[in-house]
Amino acid sequence: MKLTRISEIRRLELRQVAYEVLQTEGMAGATVEKVAQRAGASKGIVHHYFKSKQQLFEHAMRHSNALLRDEVIRRMRLARTPEQRLWAIIDGNFSADFFTRPMCHAWLSLCAEVPREPQLARIQRVVHARMRSNLLTALRSLVGEEQREHVALGITSLIDGLWLQMGLRSQGLSAADALGQMADYLSHRIPNVAWSQYLQRPGSAA
Amino acid sequence: MKLTRISEIRRLELRQVAYEVLQTEGMAGATVEKVAQRAGASKGIVHHYFKSKQQLFEHAMRHSNALLRDEVIRRMRLARTPEQRLWAIIDGNFSADFFTRPMCHAWLSLCAEVPREPQLARIQRVVHARMRSNLLTALRSLVGEEQREHVALGITSLIDGLWLQMGLRSQGLSAADALGQMADYLSHRIPNVAWSQYLQRPGSAA
DNA sequence: ACGAAAATTGGCCAACCAGCCAATTCTTGA
DNA sequence: TCAAGAATTGGCTGGTTGGCCAATTTTCGT
Fold it and tell me: Less Cβ around it within 10 Å: N or C end of chain A?
């Protein structure tokens, strides 16, 4: 019995490679041939698994999204209180493994295409909806109902803004800097929770 | 005597048109021919004024940057107090004329190229330095010296994050929403200033 | 072992594009 | 008016890319 068909393996490999190429080449410079070459395969095989370049990078976006989602889920499992759940979301978005300049460049390249690629826009909507839902749930006991949406938008915007800083600043930004900003925001916006405690043990939410 | 040579007029027109094309086509889809066509000119004339496509869009970035800078300067002139100066910077970044989806799309396209185009990175550095300088000056009497850089980074990130939301959200974001978020941030981070007063008269800092 | 199906190759093609340039039109100063 | 120079045209070219496909190799069930 075959659990994983070769086709599934190839699909996963290629979308991973496509995402890597995106990190260094950007959307315009990322050609099907470069993806094939980096994967050690021929150009034809890429088109065998993805009917178009567009679809290939659509799956690359799903890939990066899955990485981020898993980081958040892992931290969510360990969280026991609403504060911990909220911090799990934030900390997951600045996981040291993913909050890097190359990752940010790939993310930016994809974001820039969203307005013109309905499929990417669809993925973006799903990502956004999940983030909003997670935040609203965690905020339920922390913020009054009439302010929850507002605070959720503020947190989302600050996260995205810090990612942008990582990509655009000359010397980048450390995950600790970003988490410091988030803790600072939360300390002022949602007092009576000692948010700074989460900065002591970086990478952990429990 | 001729104040404005035709060459200068053309350069201004073309960089403006290049920026408009960027709004709808993105960086990959923005060809020299499309810019020429939209400008009602031939492809050759574009290369006559800009030695390369790269240089053309470098000037397009300067163009968009100049628009934003002027908006901030205009509000700065009317500001009399540090709070007003700080709000002038923020309000200028969400001027109703520029805080639109097409503008955001062009901005995103340029941001996504920054990592691979040293010239764009150079412009980006200048923009960032000016923003930082403006913010630190305005914050001098509002925030303790040891926290100024931190708050300046927070404000910058939140502004960029809200721009990103404008570009990525399905239904966009109004300038009022964005300014509401900024006022909310300032109210909690820099209390004892009635930031909400600035929301009464949208578009004005005085 | 064998044959069908899956996987893979490498090259072809049509489309597109940036850069270039010779020829033409327009502007301007004397 | 009339050159001289600036402005502009439009087509050419070399190079690249995405999509396609016929041919070949590999895998796998029987």
Answer: N
Tokens of residue A133, six digits: 């839902």
Residue B40 C-alpha, separation from nearest chain A C-alpha, in angstroms: 24
Do the chains contact at A27 and B28, CB–CB below 8 Å?
yes
Of B115, B153, B160, the CB nearest to A181: B153
Query: In what helix (H) or strand (E) does residue A65 lie, and over which residues does it extend?
Result: helix A53-78
Residues B44 and B91 sit within 8 Å (Cβ to Cβ): no
Residue B47, nucleotide of least CA–C1' distance? C19
Strand D nucleotides where any atom sits below 7 Å of a protein CB: 6-11, 16-22, 27-29
Tell me, what's the pLDDT at A199? 87
Task: Give how far B69 is from chain A: nearest CA, Å.
Answer: 18
Cα separation of B153 and B169, whole Å? 23
Give the model's pLDDT for residue A2.
Answer: 42
pLDDT by residue (tens digit) across B37-81? Answer: 999 999 999 999 999 999 999 999 999 999 999 999 999 999 999
Region B126-149: what's the mean pLDDT?
A: 97
Q: Any atom of strand D under 7 A from CB of A44?
A: yes
Q: Tell whether pTM > 0.85.
A: yes
Please judge whether A112 and B27 are an interchain contact, meaning their C-beta atoms are less than 8 angstroms apart: yes
d(CA B149, CA A106): 28
Q: Which of B28, B121, B161 is facing A157, going by the closest CB pair?
A: B161
Across A135-139, average pLDDT: 97
Tokens of A196: 């700074």
The CA–C1' separation of A43 and C11, in angstroms, is: 11
Q: Which of A5-14, A68-77, B98-107, B118-127 has the lowest mean pLDDT?
A: A5-14
Cα separation of A199 and A205, whole Å?
Answer: 9
Nucleotide nearest to A34 (CA to C1'): D17
Nearest alpha carbon to residue A31 among A12, A46, A16: A46
